[in-house]
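Technical note accompanying the year-one report. For the benefit of new consortium partners, we illustrate the data format agreed upon in the data management plan: each record pairs a sequence with a structure-token string. No post-processing was applied to the example shown here.
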Amino acid sequence: MRVYGLWFGGASYTNPDDSDLEEFASITDAREKLLDRYWRGCWQRSRFNFVARTPTDTLTPGVALSSEILLYRSRDSLDCPGWRLSFGPRGGARLERL
């Protein structure tokens, strides 16, 4: 099931807008991206599959433990997130149903 996400928190993700919407293959894919961009974001490029602009490969040094992704079932329903992915107290990813 494809999901769509907007990143919040950290140095680079404080005020996302619709052009920052990213497509993920699944919730598991979004979880892996959250962890991977935190642990390897300063030295390894990550693929961003943006919906409204050209996908890109870039470094992600702004992902911090305060970062989170609001996930949506549809790219047309940004007023109603379905889940929140964030970091748990021991550094893993936590999924909350909203």
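Partners are asked to follow this layout when depositing records. Helices lie at 27-40.
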